[in-house]
Design goal:
By secondary structure, the chain is mostly helical. It contains twelve helices and no strands. Keywords: Membrane, Transmembrane, Transmembrane helix.
């Protein structure tokens, strides 16, 4: 029957993945661009790219694969911290290519080194703490609390479509590569900050390097929390099951974002702040 043939078509799962991921990214992007740097960073640092990738990987691989991929993805999350630091430093005084290019090269170099390492939860945690701790210190001046609205005057829907398609293709590619790569390599690839890179590429020419660097600096704390979601997934995937681990990881991500929001509100209430 036509219905049976449709749902058994080999192209349907990739299509569903692409559409679902694209919708998530469009929603996150719309919120990020309508709000200020803090809210934009908070939304963009949520697992809008890696989250769907791990959900769909869980449909194809056993718990051991997911746990190993999450551990190496957690270690590779440190490379994203280095990416944010480099861009935050170069963004205000340079054009997109001269700020974004070195940041991507930094991620690639760090990820390559991490992919050849052997990681435990403790060593991966220490690496993330070192990188993100340094990032918080180095980018503190550009991550000042602010609830000011974004300087973007008009949001072009074509930008959202391009971003959604890029992330959807990325997730589909990760799922395809997971069939031939080891969980360690898959985890590192899945950790690539696709949503962040798409946001930077679109915002930098429109609002300027300073405003986009502000968002990147503010995102450092949020992306560290994303690493904790991967750590949670690694620790629980085999002992509690992948489904429970994914839900727990999502709860950790939401709790971390809520904690950042609470801390931000407290800082804004201090005397002398507006």
């Amino acid at each position: 029957m036509l219905t049976t043939a449709l749902f058994s078509a080999p192209w349907l799962p990739p299509l569903v993945r692409a559409v679902a991921t694209g919708l998530i990214v469009v929603l996150a992007s719309a919120i990020a661009e309508a709000a200020g740097p803090f809210w934009g960073a908070l939304v963009i640092s949520l697992p809008v790219t890696a989250g769907p990738a791990y959900v769909f990987m869980a449909l194809q691989h056993e718990a051991g694969f997911i746990a190993a991929a999450a551990l190496n993805g957690f270690a590779a999350n440190a490379a994203t911290g280095a990416f944010l630091i480099v861009y935050a430093k170069l963004g205000p005084g340079h054009g997109l290519a001269r700020a974004f290019g070195p940041a991507v090269l930094t991620w690639l170099a760090a990820a390559l080194a991490i992919a050849h390492g052997r990681w435990t939860p403790l060593t991966a945690l220490l690496l993330n703490c070192a990188v993100y701790g340094a990032g918080i210190v180095l980018c503190r001046a550009r991550a000042r609390p602010s609830y000011a609205p974004s300087p973007v005057a008009r949001r072009r829907w074509l930008d959202l479509v391009v971003r959604a398609v890029a992330v959807a293709l990325f997730v589909t590619g990760v799922i395809g590569l997971s069939a031939v790569l080891s969980p360690a390599r898959t985890g590192v690839i899945a950790a690539f900050p696709m949503a962040l890179t798409c946001t930077i590429v679109i915002l930098h020419p429109r609002v300027g390097g300073a405003a986009t660097a502000h968002l990147a600096s503010t995102a450092i704390r949020g992306v560290f929390g994303f690493g904790l979601t991967l750590l949670t997934l690694h620790l629980l995937a085999e002992s509690r099951g992948v489904a429970a681990a994914l839900v727990s990881a999502l709860l950790v991500s939401l709790a971390w974002s809520a904690a950042l929001l609470g801390a931000q509100r407290l800082r804004m209430r201090r005397p002398g702040r507006r």
